[in-house]
Amino acid sequence: MEWKIPSLEELEHYVWRCTACGTCRVAYDFGPPPFYAPICPAGEEFGFEGNMSSKGKIAFARGILDGTLSFEDPAFLEAIYKCTVCGGCQTQCQLDHKPFIPEIIEGMRRKAVEQGYGPLPPHKNLVQSLKSYDNPYQGPRRMRTDWMRPFKKAGRPIKDINKEPAETLFYVGCTGAFNKQAQGVPVATASIFQKLGIDFGCLGQNEVCCGSTAMRVGDAEAFKRVATQNLETFRKLKEEKGVKRIVTSCAGCYRAIKKDYALASDYEEIMDGLEVIHTADFLHRLWKEGKLTFKGELDMKVTYHDPCHTGRHLNKFRVDTEGEELWPGAYLDVSEEECLYDQPRELLKAIPGVELVEMARIRGNSYCCGGGGGVMTGFGDWAAKNAGLRIAEGMSTGAQHMVSICPFCHYNLNAGAKLIGSEMKLYDLTELLDQVL
C-alpha cells in the first residue's frame, strides 16, 4: 500500500506564501458584537512575537528549507514540538498557505525524524510503546478490555467482532481503553448502544492504535505500519463479518481514519461501503430519527468545548490548483460541512433539564485544550496549564460543568480543572446521554 504523505519540500510552495501578518494571533468574529481573543496556545505561553507562535513556525520551516536552521540545536528541535497543531491559526489565516499550515508544522517534524533528531525523548518512549504494544500507553494488549469488565459481570458482555458478525464496529481507541480517567467514555458509549439495541462489537485485544499520535509527532513510518494494519482489518471485517460502519468516540481516531488514512492509495477501495462516523454524530442521527429518546432529567448548566479534531481539522478547503479562477495554488474557500459543531449541541439542548451556555471561543474559534500534537506527552505541565485557561473560560459563563466529545480533552481538561482548584468537571457527551436514556 502506497502512502502520499507530503514532505516539507513538497509543501515549500505554500511555506513562502506566509506574509507574517499576524492574523493568526487571535480568534475573531465581526459580530455583532465584534469579538477577539487569543487562539494560539504556544503564543500564549511563550510569546506570540517570538518564534514559538503560529507565524514563527512558518519562519522555522523557511530556515530549514534554506539551510540556515538545523535540528542539531536541541533548543530548536524542542521549539518545533512546542505546538499543539490545533489548527487555530489556520482558521484565522486568509492567505494561500492557509489549507496547509498544520501539514507544514508536521512536515518539519517528519523531517526531524527522518534525519534522526526527532521526536523528543518523551515521544520516543511513546513510539517505542506503539511498536511493542500497538498502543502509546505502554499497556499490555490484555488491558485493552479492562473497561469491558462491568458488562461481563452484569451478564451482557461486549460482542467480540473477531468471532461474531455485527453491522457496527465500535473502535474504542487507546485513550479510552488505557487511560483510567477516560474509561468512562467507552463504558458510556457501549452502555448506550446496548440500551438502543445496536448490533455492535469490538476488536478487544486485537485493536491497534489508529496511529494519530505517531503522525502528530512526525513518525510517519510508525503511523503507516498501524494504519495499514487497521485498513486491512477494516477490509476483512467488511468482507467477513458484515461490518457496515465504524463508530468511534475518540476525536483523534475519527480524524485519523477520516483524514490521515485517506492518504493511502487503497483507501477508497477498502472503505467503499464502510461508513466512518463519530459517536456524537451517530447518536444525533438516531435522535433525529426518533430512535433515541430521553426519559430521565439532568438539572445541570453546562458549556461545550469543541475538540480540534472533530472541528476545524475536518475543514474542507478549496484550492485553485491549476489557476483557473485566480492563480495556481490560490486559496478560494472552506467548507465546515463535516465539522461536528451542531450535532453535540443539539443533543445537549434536547436533554431534559440541561441548560447550555456558550463560551466566547467556540466552533472554528475554539481554544485548544492544550494536549494535542504531542504536547501532553512532551510538555505535561504546559498542557495542564493551558487546560486551566480553558476551564477558567468555561467557568466565566456561569456553567457548572463542561462537556466535550474527546477522551483526550476529557483527561486534559479535568487535569486543568484540578490544577486551578476548580470544581468544574469535564463530562463526555455520552456520559450524560447514558444517564437519561
Structural account:
By secondary structure, the protein is α/β, with parallel strands linked by helices. Helix content is 43%, strand content 11%. The chain is built from 20 helices and 12 strands. The chain has helices at residues 12-15, 41-46, 54-66, 74-81, 88-92, 101-114, 121-133, 149-153, 174-178, 184-196, 212-216, 220-240, 251-260, 267-271, 279-288, 342-350, 375-378, 380-395, 407-419, 429-436, and strands spanning 26-29, 35-38, 168-170, 200-201, 245-248, 275-278, 300-304, 316-320, 330-335, 354-356, 401-404, 426-428. Helix 10 (184-196) packs parallel to helix 20 (429-436), helix 15 (279-288) packs across helix 16 (342-350) and helix 18 packs across helix 19. The longest helix has 21 residues, at 220-240. It is globular. The model has no long low-confidence stretch (mean pLDDT 95).
